[in-house]
């Protein structure tokens, strides 16, 4: 029971965070005219003679990318974690990558199934379906690569280029707002009131360090560690970011509750009221809204900076 | 307490009606029968282990500093200004409440385990095997998922709700087994296992229904004594302490219950009423522990059996010493949970299951007569 639950919990965190990559994506495209060949994360060659037009996405981040590329009408099914944009709720759901309803997938007669988790890949391929399995992006660069890849195989190169440029400029502008700030703020990023946070080897951890923040969870080996409460108190974060705010997670927490946690009153972020709530799907999901997520964090840094003096 | 009734010699004493005789009798009994010195040593061991454990963790704090901080807080020593205030916060607000919670939860589970094993005369009766804990777990899961607030008028609803779940589970198990064979203790344990699986499957179902908000439930189910500060021991004690005292006072009765039912009745024990009140108390203690710390398996099995293997099967020894060993076991397990992967933490239930499962096998292999005792 205990072990199974641990596995489940880890899987949950991976799904809701939308990323689990340990290795970088090695996907790339080659080809000429309309025939495109893609090397997936297993190193297997996937051939596209023509753009797919019945797509099932098993990754919330990539569902968002398909929408951004204007492929809404070609998306015939999504996983149950895909929740953005709102219209996605009208799409048939096929479970998630871990508890996939294979029959539902087959029934949709897809000509492409996109997944970031390798669990269901073999079963689907044995049924004669075309599966593109790409590790979740590990950093912003990886997200941009994935967008380009999806643009290439769906014949939406120009749309993809637009989306990529928009994200790049959002991040550029956001970073430039930090130019006057020398200090490296210590940050605690909370995924869950059980004190799960992000490590170095995670998408969010990468964004935090890209913005010059010192992540308290960085010392652990796992990408989503559950850390000791005393580590948070000892490291005294100047910024606390809650991805588990009750606005976004029904069983999450509030700024008031976090401020009242026993022993936390000595923490600088709590003394200065530098506690911020963020929609986790903006930042932890390696999708096309990552530019907005970065903007949010920059807002937090600037606010914390103004409270410093 | 019914020592007068269940002891023919005590009966004579009471007939004499002399109060000083009665006091002498209790004193003599305490000295002769309860392993007072052993219990005292056990309590000292708990205090020492708690102090050591309060220093261990991701942030290591020397034990003398821990002692100074505790003395300071208890106003037994002058405050020392040269200590980092963050150490004080960690020891006093994080570690100490955590260590004490671990101690109380461990004691509650071990004492309940020992009680269930005594009542059902079954060495495998553990709060987690006979449905009590999973009934409590299901009830708590329902509350966490439902829009019902966890607090009402400042009272934490989880322990009483968990208690209802626990009682319901044990009542169902009891009724199911009564229909089969009222005398058999095996049927009760089997019915309990069935109830456990039923409640667990319902918990899993609810958890999946609540997805993607199942993380808090999982966090709680996996078991842990961290977070929450002094609130947690404060929730626990009003439930665990009275139950513990009640059960301890019935240690002689439990000894008599090891004989068969007719024997016990001849000795003047109202078997059914005593059993029910003990079951209620042990369920309440388990429910309180579960509501605070989630599922922590095997403590209720390991602690009483260690005590039996070491010191034999008298309940005047088993009950208090199981309480001591249970506390030590969980304090130690929790210390491992927060130090093995430091600064990461493991759910403490993973640690107890890791030790518990091999212990269980060892128990079965070493004591082949165990099954025959049933």
What does this structure look like?
The complex is a heterodimer of chains A (309) and B (374). Chain A has 309 residues and is α/β, with parallel strands linked by helices. Chain A has 2 domains: 152 residues, Rossmann fold (3-Layer(aba) Sandwich); 127 residues, Nitrogenase molybdenum iron protein domain (Rossmann fold), CATH 3.40.50.1980. In chain A, 39% of the residues lie in helices and 15% in strands. Chain A contains 12 helices and 12 strands. In chain A, the strands form 3 sheets. In chain A, strands 8, 9, 10, 11 and 12 form a 5-stranded mixed beta sheet that branches. Chain A has a 4-stranded parallel beta sheet with strand order 5-4-6-7. In chain A, strand 1 and strand 2 form a beta hairpin. The longest helix of chain A has 20 residues. In chain B, a hairpin with a 2-residue loop joins strand 1 and strand 2. Chain B has a single domain, classed as ABC transporter involved in vitamin B12 uptake, BtuC. Chain B is mainly α and 374 residues long. In chain B, helix 6 crosses helix 15. The longest helix of chain B has 36 residues. In chain B, strands 1-2 form a two-stranded antiparallel sheet. The N terminus and C terminus of chain B are likely disordered. At the A-B interface, helix 1 and helix 8 of A face helix 6, helix 10 and helix 17 of B.
Question: Quick summary of this structure?
Answer:
Chain A has helices at residues 2-17, 60-68, 102-107, 121-126, 140-153, 157-176, 203-210, 229-235, 255-260, 268-271, 280-283, 290-308, and strands at residues 28-32, 35-39, 45-48, 55-57, 75-78, 112-115, 131-133, 186-192, 196-197, 214-215, 239-242, 275-277.
Secondary structure blueprint with pairings:
The complex is a heterodimer of chains A (309) and B (374).
Chain A: H1 2-17, E1 28-32, E2 35-39, E3 45-48, E4 55-57, H2 60-68, E5 75-78, H3 102-107, E6 112-115, H4 121-126, E7 131-133, H5 140-153, H6 157-176, E8 186-192, E9 196-197, H7 203-210, E10 214-215, H8 229-235, E11 239-242, H9 255-260, H10 268-271, E12 275-277, H11 280-283, H12 290-308
Helix pairs in contact in A: 5-6, 6-12
Chain B: H1 3-6, H2 8-16, H3 19-33, H4 36-55, H5 63-73, H6 85-120, H7 132-145, E1 151-152, E2 155-156, H8 158-180, H9 185-209, H10 215-221, H11 231-249, H12 251-257, H13 261-266, H14 271-293, H15 299-311, H16 315-339, H17 348-366, H18 370-373
Antiparallel strand pairs in B: 1-2
Helix pairs in contact in B: 2-3, 4-5, 4-6, 4-16, 6-11, 6-14, 6-15, 6-16, 7-8, 7-9, 7-14, 8-9, 8-14, 11-14, 12-16, 15-16, 15-17, 16-17
């Amino acid at each position: 029971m205990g072990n199974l639950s641990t596995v489940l919990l880890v899987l949950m965190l991976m799904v809701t965070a939308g990323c689990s990559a340990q290795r970088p994506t090695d996907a790339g495209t080659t080809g000429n005219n309309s025939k495109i060949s893609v090397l997936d994360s297993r190193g297997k060659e996937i051939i596209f003679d023509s753009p797919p037009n019945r797509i099932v996405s098993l990754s919330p981040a990539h569902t968002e990318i398909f929408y951004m590329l204007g492929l809404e009408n070609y998306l015939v099914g999504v996983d149950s974690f895909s929740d953005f944009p709102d219209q996605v709720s009208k799409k048939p759901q096929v479970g998630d990558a871990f508890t996939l309803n294979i029959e539902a997938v087959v029934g949709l007669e897809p000509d492409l199934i996109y997944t970031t988790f390798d669990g269901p890949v073999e079963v689907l391929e044995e049924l004669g379906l075309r599966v593109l399995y790409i590790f979740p992006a590990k950093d912003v660069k990886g997200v941009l690569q994935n967008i380009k890849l999806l643009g290439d195989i769906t014949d939406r190169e120009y749309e993809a280029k637009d989306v990529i440029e928009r994200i790049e400029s959002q991040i550029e502008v956001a970073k430039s707002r930090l130019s006057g700030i020398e200090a490296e703020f210590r940050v605690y990023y909370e995924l869950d009131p059980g004190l799960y946070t992000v490590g170095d080897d995670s998408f969010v951890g990468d964004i935090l360090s890209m913005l010059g923040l010192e992540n308290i969870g960085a010392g652990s080996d796992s990408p989503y560690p559950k850390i000791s409460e005393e580590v948070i108190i000892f490291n005294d974060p100047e910024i606390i970011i809650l991805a588990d705010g009750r606005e976004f997670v029904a069983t999450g927490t509030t700024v008031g509750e976090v401020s009242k946690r026993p022993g936390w009153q000595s923490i600088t972020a709590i003394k200065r009221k530098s506690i911020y709530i963020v929609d986790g799907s903006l930042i932890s999901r390696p999708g096309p809204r990552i530019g907005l997520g970065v903007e949010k964090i920059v807002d937090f840094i600037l606010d914390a900076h103004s409270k410093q003096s | 307490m019914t020592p007068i009734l269940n002891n023919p010699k005590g009966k004579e004493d009471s007939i004499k009606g002399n109060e000083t005789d009665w006091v002498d009798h209790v004193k003599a009994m305490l000295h002769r029968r309860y392993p007072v010195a052993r219990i005292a040593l056990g309590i000292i061991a708990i205090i020492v282990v708690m102090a050591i454990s309060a220093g261990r963790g991701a942030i290591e704090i020397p034990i003398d500093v821990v002692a100074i901080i505790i003395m300071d807080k208890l106003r037994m020593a002058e405050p020392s200004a040269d200590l980092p205030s963050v150490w004080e916060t960690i020891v006093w607000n994080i570690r100490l409440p955590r260590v004490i919670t671990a101690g109380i939860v461990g004691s509650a589970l071990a004492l309940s385990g020992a009680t269930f094993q005594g009542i059902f005369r079954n060495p495998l009766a553990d709060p987690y095997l006979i449905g009590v804990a999973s009934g409590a777990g299901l009830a708590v899961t329902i509350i966490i998922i439902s829009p019902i607030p966890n607090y009402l008028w400042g009272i934490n609803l989880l322990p009483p709700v968990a208690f209802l779940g626990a009682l319901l589970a044990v009542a169902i198990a009891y009724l199911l087994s009564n229909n089969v064979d009222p005398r058999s203790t095996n049927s009760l344990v089997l019915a309990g296992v069935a109830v456990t699986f039923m409640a667990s499957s319902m918990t899993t179902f609810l958890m999946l229904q609540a997805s993607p908000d199942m993380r808090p439930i999982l966090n709680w189910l996996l078991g842990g004594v961290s977070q929450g500060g002094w609130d947690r021991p404060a929730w626990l004690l009003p439930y665990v302490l009275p139950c513990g005292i009640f059960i301890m006072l019935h240690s002689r009765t439990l000894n008599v219950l090891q004989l068969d039912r007719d024997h016990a009745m001849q000795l003047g024990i109202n078997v059914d009423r005593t059993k029910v009140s003990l079951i209620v108390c042990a369920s309440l203690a388990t429910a309180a522990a579960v509501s605070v710390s989630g599922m922590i398996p095997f403590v209720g099995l390991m602690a009483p059996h260690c005590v039996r293997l070491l010191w034999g099967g008298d309940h005047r020894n088993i009950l208090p010493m199981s309480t001591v060993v249970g506390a030590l076991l969980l304090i130690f397990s929790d210390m491992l949970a927060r130090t093995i992967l430091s600064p990461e933490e493991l759910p403490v239930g993973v640690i107890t299951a890791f030790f518990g499962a091999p212990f269980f096998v060892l128990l079965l292999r070493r004591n082949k007569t165990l099954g025959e005792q049933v």
